[in-house]
Amino acid sequence: MLNISLTFMVLIAAALKRRMQLPHTLPLLAVALLNPLHAQAQIDSHASSSNTVKTLSEVIVTAPRQVAFEPWSQSPSGVGVVMTVDAKVIAARPSARIEDILQDAGLASASASSSFGLMPGIGLRGFSVAAQSATPSLVSSKILVNGVPDIASSFTRDMSSVERIEVMGGFDSTMMGAGAPGGTLQYQTKRPRGTEFFTTDVTIASDGLKRMVLDTEKDIQALKIRLVAASQRDQMTAEGVGTDRDNVLLASSLETPAGRFRLDMEQNNNAAAYVFGTFYQNNQFWYDKPYVSPQSSAARRASRTALYWDYVLSDETFVRAWAQQSDVSRDEALVGFWSLKNATTLAGYYRLLASAYQQQDIGVSLDRHLQAWGVSHNVSLLAQQQKQDLHFNGPQSINKYSISIQNPAWPVDLGALTLTPRTFQQSVTEQGLAVGDSINFTDALQLRLGTRLSGITINTASNTPIATTTVDLRHVTSSAGLSWQVTPEVKFWISRADSFQPVQGQTRDGGYLPPQVATQWEWGTQRQTSDNLLSFSMFHIQQDNLPAVDPLNKNYLIPLGGMRSFGLTVNEKTTLLSLPIQANVTFQNASITTPVSSGQGSILPGVPRLVGAVKISSPERQQGFEGWVRGIASSGKSADSLGSVYAPGYVRWDTGTTYKEAKWQLSVWVQNLFDLRYVQALNAVDNVWQGPRRSVWLNLNYKYDGT
Length: 707
Description:
This protein is mainly beta.
């Protein structure tokens, strides 16, 4: 296990010296092939007491449940390992976005395709999880909250309400419908524990942050109510933009003879103005100039109400149903730049934006355990429906003023600018019927099969009150996974999953464009003991049917383009000289296999060949001091498909210490210890996002559990 830890550090250093080539990963690929195992993905949380889950510090791999009954509908069959970031890690990163937490753990890269701050900007296995186009698109991603789709358009969830984050490498449309092929993110929100407690958490930081979180539970016989409230002020990004926000979650649970009912009511208010990022020009990245006007403003309000019902009909049959309503509104003034104008100036950008978004989800699943043909089956039926509606109004002014690259300034009288009207409306209805079977040939060998029929209709109106149907499709997907528990410590798996995303538009013969489709294969091996964990997961994802302009009629599109990503993810937890070590690293080779235009190259912009992190900690104590140091690494990434501009790779270091005394805990840590200037994400020379500057954090936590 020590050898692999040292290998991580060597590989990270090597990748930063030069862009990593695939042959360098072949030795590790060979090790994975020679060491078989499986860790089947599990995302079920309603019966955690019956799970055989080995919990590790910070990041865990959730293994198969060794029980007779396993609801297939809660565990995608075409996805292998699920990496879980637990509550302790989330709480240790006050004010962080999900992408910050996942990068710190080495589980994902940052993606510039999501307009930072408007949706999570996360890259998994070469693909953006939540890509947004210039025109809003409601079905570009699939993030889950408690097993329910949660597109969460135009806001990023505050982590105070999140118990854990599950990262599934690869997307299984059999379970989730349309979605990006690289992977799936799921929030498991905080819910009643069944015991009364009170926790308060206060954080201040040198970047101006002032943050407070309260978390408490009150139990009234069978009714359990948990309240989580968070508020933060005055924190400034590297670009000088504030991140003020508030969040409240009221989660309740009621046990009755008719089953368990859970009700979540959540409200987020976010006043973080759009940052705009920076750019590459004159042979440099312009880190130090704030290319966003102080006249920018934002008011985003997001609410979620969700009702869940779990009912055990018998020892062999389980029913789950859910209904969720989400609403997001935006009222913003965006003042910054649109693109590079020439070597010395930027094209100005001004927009007054107001939008309203609604999402409704309903679904039901039936899981039944039975014996047939001499083997054990866990058969599942699943029915889901999701509706989304967006009303967008954003009159804009592009290139009506210029901004100096070296001395940015904005017009005093923005009202003097002429705004071009721009409206957009879209409604999406997605429905799905799925069936699956987990076939247990023996206690050690399991085959999981699933198939789904999905239907999607999209109606769109752009700068017109009349909506037209831009998508009307029926699509069948399937997935399969084979799991083999070779020994109590060693496991092996192989899985295959389909994913798809609708493409809006019509072909010249009057038909609708077929969806983008992708197939992922994954092979994995894992060895886990009481003290150590080592897992390898190889993947290959091929996506096709990307739209291109029809050469016979440029007013239409054809399904032409293709992209591919393949690589290896390695996860390790071990101990060296009594010091716990946690390491995660992904090697990936992402490329364009079929270009959609003559000028497109073969490189997927913004995708690094290597991402990873290593954290070394002192032994955990109930009382007294603890300390840790963490290195977060990424190789270089290209700003375009031709590789004409590369953002260099980096290794960022964080460190901290904690003192525990009775119910109190005091923590001090430094983010970006050496104040490294680096590009966190980019996908064009004028869409560049820098990493955070050095900051010092102080956190005080108090917990009372009635004792």
